[in-house]
TrEMBL record, chains A, B:
Pfam families xref list: LacI, Peripla_BP_3
A molecular function (GO) term: transcription cis-regulatory region binding
Record-given protein name: LacI family transcriptional regulator
Keywords attached to this entry: DNA-binding, Transcription, Transcription regulation
Entry keyword Isomerase: no
CDD domains, per the entry: HTH_LacI, PBP1_LacI_sugar_binding-like
Entry-linked InterPro entries: HTH_LacI (IPR000843), LacI/GalR-like_sensor (IPR046335), Lambda_DNA-bd_dom_sf (IPR010982), Peripla_BP_I (IPR028082)
Domain HTH lacI-type, first and last residues per copy: 12-66
Superkingdom assignment: Bacteria
Amino acid sequence: MSQKLKTTSQRARREDVASVAGVSSAAVSYVLNKTKRLSPEVEQRVLDAARLLNYRPDRIAQSLAGSRTHTLAYMTADIANTYQLEVIKGMQTEALKNDYIVYIFDAAGDVKKYVSHLITRRVDGIFVSAAPDFLSDELLCELRDANIKVLADFSRSTFLPDVSYIMSDMYDGFMQAVGFLKELGHTEIGYLSAFDESCYYDLRLPAFKIAMRKLFGAGVPPIEFGGWPYSTSETLGIRLMTKMLSEHPEVTAIVATNDLMALGAIKAAIACGRRVPEDISVIGIDNIDSSAVSKPSLTTLDQSGNRYGAKIFEILHNDIVAGTSGKYIVPMRLIKRESTGTAPQNVENRILLQE
Amino acid sequence: MSQKLKTTSQRARREDVASVAGVSSAAVSYVLNKTKRLSPEVEQRVLDAARLLNYRPDRIAQSLAGSRTHTLAYMTADIANTYQLEVIKGMQTEALKNDYIVYIFDAAGDVKKYVSHLITRRVDGIFVSAAPDFLSDELLCELRDANIKVLADFSRSTFLPDVSYIMSDMYDGFMQAVGFLKELGHTEIGYLSAFDESCYYDLRLPAFKIAMRKLFGAGVPPIEFGGWPYSTSETLGIRLMTKMLSEHPEVTAIVATNDLMALGAIKAAIACGRRVPEDISVIGIDNIDSSAVSKPSLTTLDQSGNRYGAKIFEILHNDIVAGTSGKYIVPMRLIKRESTGTAPQNVENRILLQE
DNA sequence: TTGTAAGCGTTATCAA
DNA sequence: TTGATAACGCTTACAA
């Protein structure tokens, strides 16, 4: 069939497979891509030949001929962030299952050059992680206009047409968390916030306020702020919790912006003579690994990085295939552990004991 | 010239540039790739046309036509490691400068599938990070035989032909460190090792021993071992240093396997009533960020992650272009800071003081 | 010095 | 159901 078989070639080409199977090279494509059904007998011959030659279609050639490269990109301002790394892994794992590959960039480099690379290499889609906007709207549009699907974190400061956005369902999440505390009998619930009110991309604080309003009506819950420069460390949790306990000793439950701070809050509470959860309950957000093994283990709002990353792939993939775009909300889940318990019966008693 | 200009096309193609410049499409290639000199006038016309159309050659097509994809891969067992991330950034930055892009994989996934991807996508080269051997020799050979340049960490358990290896020059580094201590008058020098003698991929311990032998002759220096399971934390540094001070109070200088442990060692020394560097000098390895700002700042053997990463790119790039392979040794540099000083004059006096 | 044309390994269209 | 054949956008001999 084929007049020039590559004898020295390391890798088998489609034509080689066709020749071994005794069919046309088009037939090979049809069988392997399942793009057209041929006779079972022919299909088997092709499959056998492909296996025999260890044939794997060349992605480069496929990309040139087809319209997709099966390549995505993940762009973030901070690769080193633990949670971010989980998200990346989750996305990569899911991508790999579907024969996609993910470029990972951290925005510390020359963002403009990255964009250029993404376009010349024709990636199918890109995810742009949380604010602040290290990738300008202009560059985002350049990507979009180059026919690359863009999925951005919801917390970007602007919304662009034909760009998709993703967010965790913080509002529902906080409803779960605060609702759970309410069920346990808590009414005095405080919040430890890393960010102050002016931080436009923090959705957690407003979500907390809304949940409190909906479940307890009007009234301002006690909140401690970390302020600028923003950080979300365990140390900050300790500092804010200590402040909270002295300023608002009536509080019997605390929600913290993330697990690290919640862990710090527990330490601070214990240092101040409060037992967790007997005297005070603590809830975190993120469900980081250490939250499951801390003493006491931490009740937390789960947005597993891995699952989130997998979701990112699914959304991008779907948008690419269907040519769609939209705003996507990913549900969160409250993981109940040891750091939460029923509200103490007698608040006065507890305060007396402490003195 | 060109009979069918793409009017609707988003991106300019080479032919478009040729047509605007009034030359053949080959001329465009020659000028842009500097692969052949044309007349200055033609060159200018091409350059102008390219700029006008914002022309950027399609990497996919270049890859198919040419022999290189300008794509590399970095494979590691642990993305989350801080030092590793620095290396990755260093490599990526250097790669980007040279119009290369780097795939990043962590070996937690399906390594075999990664390899398949790398082959079908025809990456030019791959770096495989430190032991243990998460990537089997078999897969390594599959990559190599697919004409992909492989650069592996020196600490792999086996050496394969036509594969390149890279290592930091620990031997020279320890000669610098121990030599510096000798200059300062130290003779009793101890070592804090995370690994025990059986760890085949730890080059630091043998490097320390060799340096001691060369500079001080025979005799066994005092060494404390962390043992299995291997870890290199600050906590371990504290533990080993405490042990060292009680078992070998005559020691006036310490080298630790890495900066984290060295930092722990300083804390332990101070806790035991020893001043650093007046009573005891401490040297670390790695030059992590915090080593520069600790109190006292840490003298350390520098193998900057960024520089190392850049080096990885350079080596791979060169091996790819030249078709070579080899074993590469990257120099280290001793950064002298506050944690080292002249040896105490009177050892007896110091020990007495302490009692 | 410049242009022509044959690949590169696929996909996909269109007759046979 | 199958087999040619034209893209895809570029590199690179080779010819003019």
